[in-house]
Amino acid sequence: MASSVHPLASSAFSTSGSSGLYDRARPTYPPTALSRIFAALQSLPSSTNGLNVVELGAGTGIFSRLLLRPPVDVTTDVQVAKLVAVEPSVGMRDGFRAGMQKIAVPVGEMGPAGPEVAQVVDGSFDRIPVIDGWADAVIIAQAFHWSHGHYDTALSSIARVLRPGAPLILLWNLEDREEAGHPWVGPVRDVYEAHEQGTPQYRLMLWKAIFDMPEFTENFNMKYEYKRMKWTVPTTDDGVVERVLSKSYITALGAGEKEKVESGVRGVLKDTAKTWIDEDGGVFEYPYATDLYIIRRK
Q1: Cα 211 from chain centroid (whole Å)
Q2: Domain with 63 in it: what CATH number?
Q3: Annotated region Disordered: where (predicted)?
Q4: How many domains are contained in the chain?
């Protein structure tokens, strides 16, 4: 069976996942987004043990850890009985286990039958190893666009595992080049986006083709919740460089090309104004826009 994940993503993310670069360089998600997600989950009926959640393209578990160990500034009574993290990349699954160790959460590899709350398994958007109607929610953070060209089979597979009325939650972070006070973001993006190699990046919104597909209209409600949230994270020049190097199409470049990209990024950062948090320490704001979609199964 052909993979439903873009081949560049599978190979490059395995490298950045196993090395620790992806988990180190990528941001978390803002409390406002988490609060909305937990509110959607809290509205669901569940067993006394809690909810069954599938996370597709779970990567190194950046979102998974927030789900199982919410930040102190996010209040929720949601209990997860089982999280099945589906991830096709061996390196990312290694990173997932390493990340869960940081918060002392045991990880199994048996799926729903495993005794551990957190399970990480091989699979993909259209190859989800759980039974029909098992999931109280399917969550995809920073990943669904990588199923481009296979949205039809992905939607059918997601609909199969979701129980009626359960949400499909899509979440993305995007470096915000429009936010005033951060003029370096646009030029930095110009440096690395020149190497996208035709990959189906989220910013292109190609994934929105799903809303016109019969697999969507037959299985999901057309009315959905959407929210864009603006926020910033502290960073440094090195942090911005690592964020760029963690991008799949940059990870896949040869050493010489990576050096050129890094030089270009550092040149922009040197010559462009920043919003400082600690100028002496070299710490400044990195602006993000987080897009959240909550779509309900019919």
Answers
A1: 20
A2: 3.40.50.150
A3: 1-21
A4: 1
